[in-house]
Description:
The chain has helices at residues 3-31, 33-54, 75-82, 93-101, 123-141, 165-177, 180-190, 197-204, 209-238, 247-269, 276-293, 299-308, 310-315, 317-330, 337-361; strands spanning 65-70, 85-90, 107-109, 115-116. The protein folds into two domains: 15-57 and 161-361, no CATH class; 65-147, no CATH class. Helix content is 67%, strand content 5%.
Amino acid sequence: MSSSHLQERSCVIKMKDLFRSIYYLAKSILRDKSFTFWVLLFPALLATFFHVALTSAFSFQVETIPVAVQKESFAAYVFPETGLFDTRLVENDQEGQDLLKNKKVEAYVNKDSELVVTSLSGVKPSIVRSILSQMEQATALGDAANYLDFSVSPVQQEEQKTEPIAVYFYSLFAMVCFYSMFGAISSCTVIQPNLSTLGARLTSSPFKKSTFILSSFFVNMSLTMIAILLLYIYVVYFLKVQLFSNPLESLLLIFMGNLCGTALGYALGAIKKIKEPTKVIFAVLLTNVLSFAAGLMSIQVRFLIYKHAPLFSKFNPMSILTDTLYQINNLTNSSNLVFAISTLGAYSILALGLATLLLRRNQYDSL
């Protein structure tokens, strides 16, 4: 048999080994109940909590303000033009005061166009005062008052995409990207003969360690991306929260975050003489700290960290993901995209380089 045929046959065998390894690794991970809960169910539950608890907290809508106006006042003609007030005309002060006392109106305007309210604080009395101030200016200007437009609202309503609640969802997606760490730790620990019986068998068999690493890398990346896609479908189509106006750039960022999480998992998993449960605990702590600093639990904590530890906030990979996802989707600003991709890529290269160095330097006296 010629050398070319031998090389071709060897290549086919390697590909078969790779695909077989991918199949069994994926099957093993999908059977793991912890993967089903933490990577698939837990993010969906957290997204549901954000939607229920935070949507109403960050929503504000200006409604018509119920006011009582004496018929003799100039405001009786002006207030209906603004579209801001639910105007109730009264005959005298007593009727207006009674409505105000019974909290059926927010304010009362007497015949001299003077404002009477139970409390001088708040947005609604300020709006009433603003209109009355324009009326006072109109009286002082005389004929020039014809140019004043009372239909112009002192509160400008426009659709604003900079929603604080979006930060929580972007932080959630960043956290799920780094869940690939756990599968990577398990895969890297398995091939070490001093930590796993399967590792001892692989070391003494003709099956190449590099084939196992490549297949596990592909499986961890792919399953995490599928989990993120399912989370996206749930958030956008079931919870009706629109997050990704720039899907291609967002997908690229999420892929880089997934790559970074997987690489960090291999770096942790390659550490010699540390058992897998200890590595997993450290990964959980690292993930929680980074996501907490990125604003997953509280936006106020995020601002405090940015104020007191700006470098940590700037180079925290989850903060990078959260900030850039927010900027490109809510602010239509892609200026930070190159920095984000470069930084996450640098982290991935460093982590994979460290993992390669640690795995190659491992030597065993006996298996």
